[in-house]
Input
Amino acid sequence: MARNMRLCNRLTQFFRDKLYLEVPSPDTDLIEAGLLDSLNFAQLMVHIEQEFAMHISPEDLEFDHFRTIAKIAAFVATRWLGS
Amino acid sequence: MNILLVAEESAGIRLLRALLRTEHRIVAVMTSTTGPSKTSSMASVATRAGLDIWPPSRVRDPALARELRAAGVDLILNAHSLYLIHEEVLRAPSIAAFNLHPGPLPRYSGLNCPSWAIYRAERTYGVTVHRMSPRIDAGPIAYQTTFDIDEAATGFTLTAKCVSVGVPLMRQLVEVAARDPAAIPAIEQDVGQRKYFGREVPRNGALIWSESASQIARFVRAFDYYPFASPWGHPQALYEGQHIGVVKAVQTRAKTGTPPGTLRRGPSGIMEVAAADEWLALHLVHAGGRHIRPDQLLRDGTRLEDGTKT
Output
């Protein structure tokens, strides 16, 4: 739980520092909130691959995995940390 | 100033965000509200900003001109919208209508220009802000920036580059328009250099395995908007009588004299196809309506045939 929270904080920081977007909470629907357009999505994929040294395969590219910061953190935790 | 924004996609969203940070009033946003979107839509961003949304098809209606004059619209800003704006509407704003075009005018006008530039092996590319005239992408140029094309650029990444370079040009236009509209540059386009690209797709998307690996890889990259839908669809090949799309293919630099189209499992375990001169690694294909790993479909020792051009 604490680990996922740390991941959420890192991802929120990425949105703020690199995409210049404030995400109100880890459960905010990024697509509904207009925060995840196609270019931001592509930048997010590159960031996750570089930041966490992981490869996102085509099978992983389910947009539902990336709808909220909490879901992205859970995805990264599963793939990167194996938990 | 009062601004009417006619825009779609990420370019529109980013332009809208930039405008929301200025003191100018956005009279309305003309954008599509139908159709599912995998990512945030222009309409959702405009709605959350409390802006009026008008149907983009209304730009074809000359009656819109009177409404714009009544609303005191000074600028129409158009970004990545595919509707042709009626001449009367173009004349309605007190300053002018401007378009953000993802290509270096006049050499790349029309549709899907980033993909055409990759297909045509351009080394440099550009983005243009121009006054809108009744003829598509033909009005005088206000601002233009050129840049190098990355060797690994795809249709998607080059379009993204155009957005990231182009939105600041639109911001610059708005700043100058607010200060002194007469200071906006208006450089007539050299019609002799004009090249217009329509809805056609090169070779109807047919892959030809007897081409060099670099030609094939470039062809595939021109079509590549993954994970989003490509305006050209997927480049096509035939496998055991079925059409398949090649989504990602990368040069290996490993030479081959094997007949073009032959498949093998490469040294790294990735499926490879023989081009005229070297093996090409296949990273992603599209078959049966979904994206799949090539090794889930293609077998070592079998062959891919050329796509059909008709």
About this structure: Chain B touches chain A at residues 9-10, 13-14, 37-41, 44-45, 48, 156-157, 160, 163-164, 226-228, 284, 291-293 (CB under 8 Å). The longest helix of chain B spans residues 155-179.
